[in-house]
Amino acid sequence: MNRVDPRPQNKVLAAIIVWYALAIFAGGSGFTLRMVPPLPQIVLFGLVVLLLLLYWLSQSFRKWVLSVNIKLLVALHLTRFVGFYFLFLYSRGQLPYDFAVLGGWGDIIVATAALLVILLATLVGKSGWIICLVWNLIGLVDILFVIATAARLTIADPQSMSELLKLPLSLLPTFLVPILIFTHIIIFIRLYRARRAGYIKL
Asked: Domain total for the chain?
């Protein structure tokens, strides 16, 4: 009987815990609040690049990422129900409409669709492949729209987006959003590989 080597998962989990702790420290110490554009965007996409470099350079990490249940990758996007918190902050005048309402509802829709994919979709065969592709494409477009909106509003009025640089929302650019973008990219890679293999497995 083949046994799954737990070492890659354990290393990934340990790295995520350390990263999360550092992100909390950066937000709690006020470091993120002192960041001015385009530094938040540089940090966010820099972390995405680091994850992609790890994917390409670490064979064990790459093998694990390509073998983990794809619904687990989708499940990470349930965190995008944070859109409800955006709406709450908008109701209190702490976030602007374009980001909180448009971006918030976009995230809520993507998170709801992710939940439906997890619970109802059978991600096998060509039909499952199409469902996953459509959801992943919409999810990536949405998150890039939110990032672009935040950058535009920050440049126009830095104070209007200051909530994103304080805990708990400072964890978005320094922790959560890079992971979500990375999972979108990995899902696209998984879809490409599945198509070449005849849609047998995602």
From this structure: 1
DSSP of 121-190, one letter per residue?
----HHHHHHHHHHHHHHHHHHHHHHHHHHHHHHHH-GGGGGGGGSTTTTHIIIIIHHHHHHHHHHHHHH
User: Is 202 part of a structural domain of the chain?
Assistant: no
How far, in Å, CA of 51 to CA of 73, rounded?
A: 15
Residue 44 identity = L
- Please check whether residue 144 lies inside any domain of the structure: yes
**Model confidence over 51-88: pLDDT tens digits?**
999 999 999 999 999 999 999 999 999 999 999 999 99
Distance CA 175, CA 162 (A): 17
Cα separation, 23 vs 112, in Å, equals 27
The angle formed by the CA atoms of residues 58, 39 and 175, to the nearest 5 degrees, is 45
pTM, entire model: 0.94
Calpha distance 23→176 (Å, rounded):
10
Sequential DSSP letters for 181-197 = HHHHHHHHHHHHHHHHT
Domain boundaries, position 105: 7-196
